[in-house]
Design goal:
The chain is an alpha+beta fold. The protein has two domains: about 180 residues, no CATH class; about 170 residues, no CATH class. The chain is built from 15 helices and twelve strands. A ten-stranded mixed β-sheet has the order 4-7-8-6-9-5-3-11-1-12. A two-stranded antiparallel ribbon has the order 2-10.
Length: about 375
Amino acid sequence: MTAASFIWKNALRNRRRAALSILSVAVSLFLFVTLLVAMREITVPPEDIGAASRIVVRNKISLANLLPARQRGVIERIPGVEAVTPFTWYGGKFRNEDATLFAQFAFDPATYKYLLGEAKLGPGELDNFLKNQTTCIVGKLTAQKYKIKVGDKLPFTGTIWPCDLELTVAGIYWGTIDDRNVFFHHKYLDEACGSQGMVGTWWVKAKSIDNMTEILAKIDKAFANTSAEVRAETERAFQMSMVSMWGNIKILVRSICSVVVFTLLLVSASTMSMAIRERFRELAVLKAIGFRRHELCGFILAESFGLAMAGALLGVGGAWWAYSHISIARLTNGIFITFEVTPKIIGQASLIAALLGIVASLAPSIAVSRMSVVDGLKTLD
């Protein structure tokens, strides 16, 4: 019998306990990976290809404060600016739902290629959208969820803006980071709400990312000391400012992860101690026939490490497979979009499993090292 086969047989001596140990590690690490991926999804929003050259201009006081439409001409004349579009969140209720989980944005369709350059539409759909002021384009995920087709009427009840809208679907887009939203003409929003001449934010496309800092400073300066001062920031900075509204979400998720790992450590250490305690007589015999302490400790470490890594393979691998093949956006009704299990997260979970296997073997290894042959032989099976 080889050392490997000896360790294998001992690990599977009580198959029910071994299976439960592996499953406890697998389920805990699956939960650990899920929490880390969810935290990454919340705190590190995904970006599309053109995000690096886009700028968001909002009211300096608050995002809830609107901006006058006359600012557009000033921003367009700033050197380095390629395109400017109003970008206003409508926030209406669709078909009188209690909670509508997709956003509706009003913008200038003429700037479509700058704002939604990655989006793909069917033949003729873009032309229909540009020609008809009461039309909209709908993300593929939302269209699938509500069984929306081109030509359908979409009624929205205003909650923030004092007007209701009825939009006609001109096309269904796909290929962006977030295929959930509805985009429609800002002119239609202005007319429906009485031409208030106000916008939520300005989205600016820079000609080059090399002079982004200079453009940001010039936009801020252009409206300094006016009744509507602005804050210009990159799209990424704007996204992160929205994330900050979640509060200390990282502390919460990491606290839960710590509790999961600590509980798993206690269970694994208790299981290994129980398994080794049942084999004290056998280990005493091995020590009597010449096996040294470090060899016996090596057997225990290998068994504990093997069970932990088997659980990691099942739990971490299962999480990677599940989130790679299941549409998380559809499963969560669009709350999460990509839910990517990154190599870094896989490495963290695997490292925890390895440390778990090592730490769980320490107590039984110390007990076996201190055990004398006589005391071990007196132990009952």
